[in-house]
Amino acid sequence: MANQRPPSGRPMSRGSLPTAGRPPTAIRPPPTAIRVGTGMVPGTGRPGTRGGNLGTPGVLSAQIKVADRPVTQQGLSGMKTGMKGMERLSSKINELTIETSKLQKEIDTFNQENSVYLSYEKRSAMSHCLDCGLCRKEEMIRAVEEEMEREKQAADDIIKKMSPEKQEQYAAMKVNNDKLLQELDARQEELDALIMRKETFESELSHSQVKQEAVLLHEKLQELEMRRDAMVAEDKSVGSPQEERDRLLKQVKEENQETASMERQLTEIREKMSQINEEIRQIDNDMEEHQGTHSFCFCLSVFLYFLDTFDETKALEVERNRQTQANIVTLLEHTSKNINRMRQISSVTASELKSMQEDLSFKETEMHKSHNTTKGLSSENLRLTQDLQKIEQLESKMNIEMNGLIHKIQTMSQELDTYSNLDALKTAGEEKKRRLLADRVSLAQRRDSFKKIMQKMDTKYETLKTQLQENETHAQLTNLERKWQHHEQNNFVMKEFIASKGMESDYRPVMRTVSRQLADYNKILIDALQGTRN
Questions:
Q1: Which residues of 367-381 are buried (b: 16+ CB within 10 A; e: fewer)?
Q2: ∠239-243-247 over CA atoms, to 5°?
Q3: Per residue in 88-114, pLDDT tens?
Q4: What InterPro entries does this protein map onto (predicted)?
Q5: Which of 106, 136, 248, 506 could pair with 419 in a Cys bridge, judged by C-beta atoms 3.0 to 4.6 Å apart?
Q6: Are 258 and 250 contacting, i.e. CB atoms less than 8 angstroms apart?
Q7: Model pTM above 0.85
Q8: Left (φ > 0), alpha (ψ -120 to 50) or beta: where does 56 sit?
């Protein structure tokens, strides 16, 4: 029977598989109808074609061997269908990812080669710059030497043109100049040696606590010696008791004269104050004659009352002016109404109109008077306030001067009491002298002991320094430290160079731009596929 023939090794086609044998994809829905096989004679039952009966879809028959089944380009799974939609998109994404990784590897390789090439190029440029610098320096030195030769030749020409006496004088001065230059070189070398020795001592001193304490003690000793010399000079400057007494008496006389002059000045100031008070009283009397028969106390009480009630009075006047202005506005409105009424009503007489105008002029006059009164009171208050401030300033100044004079008199009295007791001063001076002599002896002993300690420490230091300089390990460590510093400097320069070149060859912004464009492109494709499906 045709249906009982064994299946051949030919792979099945798509048309012979039932619809249930092909599961739907995640994007495309399953087909609605089964495709009818073509190119087949009904009833022939040829196996492997679209009309033949097959077994269970997706399951190989037990009689088929793997070796007998032909292998296509796509493997054992048979012919693959053409990619559409998301499959094509995913394949493109994979290709772009592979291409991006390849580009990344190429960029890394290029960066490495570029860094090596740039380092070599930098070294060659540095060597070229050094060579150029050396050549430039040699040219400058050569130009300076030529200039010096020309100047020397010109100087020789000038010397040859001189008289014999000036030539001899020039030769003597030249010899003296050479000697001075040699001496200057020797002093400069000595100064450099001393500076190096000083720096060495300072570095050693910074690492030695004992030497720092010794230096502090030496400075303290110098300070104490200076104080001792000052005290000795002060002691020598002190004269005999009779001379001190004469000096103090002379000082007291001078201070008494100064006190007398101050008292005279104080008397003059008091006279000026009395004169000013007399002028004030005269002004008050003139004001009384001008204003009436009021007494000074009454004027003063009125003035103080005016100062106390000025703000309140001013506020009342301002409020009164405001009310007057409001009344004037009201009257003007009333007048305008009356004028309109007069136009409308012809029964208004001329006497009523005249009385209204008189009332308006009276109100305006009152308002101007109130303004003038306010201005006058303000100016009077300002003038009296200024006079009062001047008097208070003068009084405070006089009080300050009086207090200063009293304090000075008290100080001079205390000093006079102190210097009048010459025996106590002499006893205190002798006691201070004995104490300073004892301190001098103890400090001299300490100085000698510290000198011995310093000599021992210097000897020990020189011995250790000699041993350290003769030690090969120290020399090797010094050389290694210099090499280490040189390598550190080179490492720092290379790090800066690598950082600058890394910033120049940074591909990440480009990669982010490509990824963003790829995502936008994928989104556009997905939207387009969804739109075509809908």
A1: beebeeebeeeeeeb
A2: 110
A3: 778 888 888 898 888 888 888 888 887
A4: IFT74
A5: 248
A6: no
A7: no
A8: beta
